[in-house]
Design brief:
Layout (H helix, E strand, L loop, with lengths): L1 H5 L5 H21 L1 H7 L6 H22 L4 H24 L1 E3 L2 E3 L2 E3 L6 E3 H19 L7 H19 L4 H17 L4 H24 L8 H11 L6 H16 L23 H34 L3 H25 L18 H62 L1 H7 L1
Antiparallel strand pairs: 1-2, 3-4
Helix pairs in contact: 2-4, 2-12, 4-14, 5-6, 5-7, 6-7, 6-8, 6-13, 7-8, 8-13, 11-12, 12-13, 12-14, 13-14
């Protein structure tokens, strides 16, 4: 174990908080999967779901370990080509979406031969953030022209968002918000950001009008997220209200100390208790203390991301940490806000805690890149420390040689004086 820990490079704080979140996830997932076990197996045995989650977490940490060994600037080189591949996957997902567990699943594709579903929008977000960071770092020393940035930056961004929007409005909004934050941090001119935001609002309004005028254009997709916004702003009851009500009952039942691990009642009624609404189950079983503990871990992780970004030795490294790290924390906050009805139902999971496969793996892939950035910082710091030690050792060697030369010169002077008779006479 000690040897394994010694092989983990990069920010130890990020490693620690990620490990704590992953370890904590085992109990809530084990408890909250009971309704899935009754529906899928009929016997309520959740052990299979726990084992599956542990396997996903183990694969995720393997991904972190492998990716953090790769120099992070390699991802800068491949981001542009990867974006074209992502567009193909998103287009395929939009056309070939299937039904999973009775819900529209146009966000996923089935990976051939291994039978695993993969949410392409998570990969698209990660590639897009790296692409934006690459563009901003490339234009650091060059005045940005809005005309050129439209073709080099915003056209790829909007193409990616257009592919995601019909099936997943919440993810589109999250990605667009994070891109705006990234370009702001990258010192993209504010007046240009205002034009882009205005253009995005106009396009979204136009898209909604088209979707309302032609409801069959995107069946079971656009209607879903439009109805969620409508229902959130009105008192009309629907399935989402049912989930929110059960989530609020769970949170209220938890009080300060909670009902205890595995003793949740609302997990039997919440359809997405192990994924979208797992935070409600956490508060019900572990109380307000448990909920605040989870929130604190995410905030500590955010703090480490800020430190890692500040210490990064290149602008690309700083922007990569912000672009990949901040969306994780923002997604966690959105998930918690949905559970307490501060936001409409979005379908965003709780990173590293909610059950899932590809979402955990993509989160771990992003964490691996972030840790790779911090590993480079450590390598540079170690090189500087080694250089300082070598310089100190060399200076000591030079000082020793000078001292020896002075001693030899002094001894020679004494001997020379002793051999000279005139010197002896003068002394008398």
């Amino acid at each position: 174990m000690k040897q394994l820990v010694s092989n983990l490079k990069g920010d130890k704080g990020i490693w620690s908080f990620v490990a704590l979140l992953a370890l904590f996830s085992f109990m809530p997932v084990f408890s909250a999967s009971s309704n899935l076990a009754y529906i899928g197996q009929g016997n309520g045995n959740t052990l299979g779901y726990l084992v599956k989650h542990i396997v996903h977490i183990c694969i995720g940490f393997t991904i972190i370990f492998m990716v953090h060994k790769v120099p992070y600037h390699y991802f800068k080189a491949v981001s542009k080509g990867a974006l074209y591949i992502v567009w193909v996957l998103l287009a395929y997902t939009l056309i070939k979406g299937t039904v999973i567990a009775g819900a529209n699943a146009s966000r996923w594709i089935q990976v051939p031969f291994i039978g695993v579903t993969f949410q392409t929008s998570t990969l698209a977000a990660m590639v897009l953030f790296i692409f934006v960071a690459r563009y901003l770092s490339k234009t650091r020393e060059i005045p940005i022209s809005f005309k050129s940035s439209i073709w080099e930056l915003w056209l790829p961004v909007f193409i990616t968002l257009i592919f995601i929007l019909p099936a997943n409005f919440s993810t589109t909004a999250l990605i667009f918000s994070m891109v705006l934050m990234l370009v702001f941090i990258g010192k993209y001119p504010l007046r240009y950001i205002g034009i882009v935001v205005g253009s995005g609002i106009v396009f979204l309004a136009f898209f909604i009008l088209v979707a309302k005028a032609f409801p069959d254009a995107f069946p079971n997709r656009v209607d879903t997220w439009i109805s969620r916004i409508d229902n959130f702003t009105s008192d009309k009851p629907d399935e989402d209200d049912y989930q929110i009500e059960k989530a609020k009952i769970a949170i209220a039942s938890g009080k300060i100390y909670g009902l205890g691990p595995g003793k949740s009642v609302q997990k039997n009624f919440l359809p997405q208790s192990s994924s979208d609404f797992i935070f409600a189950i956490i508060v019900e079983e572990y109380g307000l203390i448990g909920g605040l503990g989870v929130l604190t871990l995410y905030l500590l992780l955010l703090f480490r991301f800020v430190i890692a970004s500040h210490k990064a030795n290149s602008l690309f490294g700083k922007l990569v940490v912000v672009g990949l790290g901040f969306p994780m924390i923002f997604q966690a906050m959105v998930n918690m806000a949905v559970a307490v009805e501060l936001l409409p139902v979005t379908g965003q999971t709780l990173p590293l805690i909610s059950s899932g496969g590809s979402s955990i793996w993509m989160t771990c892939f992003a964490l691996g890149i972030i840790i790779s950035v911090t590993k480079k910082e450590e390598e540079i710091a170690q090189e500087l420390k080694d250089a300082a030690k070598r310089e100190e050792a060399l200076q000591k060697l030079i000082d020793r040689e000078l001292e020896e030369e002075e001693v030899v010169a002094e001894n020679y002077s004494i001997e020379d004086k002793a051999k000279n008779p005139m010197h002896a006479v003068l002394n008398k």
